[in-house]
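Researcher: Let's try something more involved. This one mixes different molecule types, so please make sure each is placed in the same coordinate frame as the others.
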Amino acid sequence: MAAPAPDLDVLVDGIRERSEAAFSDLHHLMSNRLVSFAYGMLRDRQAAEDAVQQAFLELASTAQSFRGDGRSLRSWLYRSVRFNCLDEVRRRERHPERPTDELPDIASMDSDMELGVDPILEMALQELSEQQRSIIILKHVLGFSGDEIARILGSNRAAVYASAARAERRLKKLLTPVESGASAASQWVENKR
Amino acid sequence: MNRNNTDLTERLRSAYEIEMSDATRSSQISAISAALKDAPEHAPAAPSIASAWRRRYAAVLAAATIFTPAAAAVAAEGTIPGDVLYPLKQVTEDVRSVFDPTLAARHRVEEANEMHQMGFPLSEIERIITDADSAIIEAGEPPELRSRLIELMSAMGMDHMEEDMMGAGRKGTPPESSTPDGMSGANSDQMFSTSPGHRDPSIGRIDSGSRYQDMMTDDAGDRRSMTDSAGYEDDMMMGDMSGRDEMTGDTSGENTNHDDGTASNDSQVSDHESSPPTTTWDSGGSWDSGQDDTDSSHDGGGERGSDGSWSP
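Model: All components are placed in one shared frame. Result:
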């Protein structure tokens, strides 16, 4: 996946001047990747889209004070989305959804299935820490390098590589035994229902 | 990337690579445009570099305000008279003495010991010794501090001062035969302000204008009575007694000039400088009685016991 940094460099001045056109271009350029990242963290499409919108609104309010180039702008957006996702995770932990007597939301589950969500993979990803999950999504889904991931997470490259290696080992370990059972996925989906 | 990682990447992408619908995108862009219009045209400027530095300076100043006094107080703990932070040590000592009555005494003894180790002239250390004596009295005569002070004074060859502070009974009454001018025992008792085994702090306290210094600077006969025979010999070696009295500028019994005492002690300093004492301190405050100059300054026939006391 090609990095859109050059285009972002062109947009930075417009963003700083709070140009609507620049914001619209930036949104077209970044929203799909940002929402994929947020979805990887939250596993909730609506919440992921809300996190992305919140990041753009924050950028709109602070655009004049933005200093940096296109790469900085991209890192800023991912960081902002990540923080919004973490806020959402914490909010959910504080206010867990209460089970109701209503029927399961079959429509949303079908929607997830249409998106190609892999229940086994999702179960394995849940076993990772938030940091490891972020690194796995940024590396494997969005194709960022170690340097870029370190920039987004506010960490250093060595720590990112080490964390990525640990996360990959753990994922393989988690996925292998689950896949050995033919009915593991359907069993997990049944449990979720 | 090996095959396993490639598989993982493909699997993750197929699961999590999603696209925003056009409707959602349009909705979000509209919301962003509205936010751009609603926001003031001239939003508050980003914090300038100057204000950022001001905040940093304020933080540093606040930290310094909080931590500097504490750090200075800690640093002042090991100071000795003459150090810049010594007055601060005295101030904190006054406060801490409310909770620890022996603090001042311990500080003075430590200071005297440190000054001795650093080679200060005895005239300087004498002042701290007298302060230490006063502090020990005020602290209720803690035996460990008193014995440490005695050992310290012995190590410095200040036994004459030690006798005065302790009274005759604590170290054994100075033999009358040791007074060359044949001073009577009664006179000797008058000089040692407290009777053996009893010490009245209000009487026995020694300060800069104390009887001790008066005696030290009094006429030659009194001085000889304060010192032992060896001390007397030292005086004689220095020359004419009257000459020393002239140094004080006052030959009367009311002499309060300290110069004489200083000169006398300077002579002891020079002795020490020429042959440094071999006394060594260990952690328990005991001492190694390998010195000879200190012993020889006493009454010759005495022996130092293991507890630091003198037996004739």
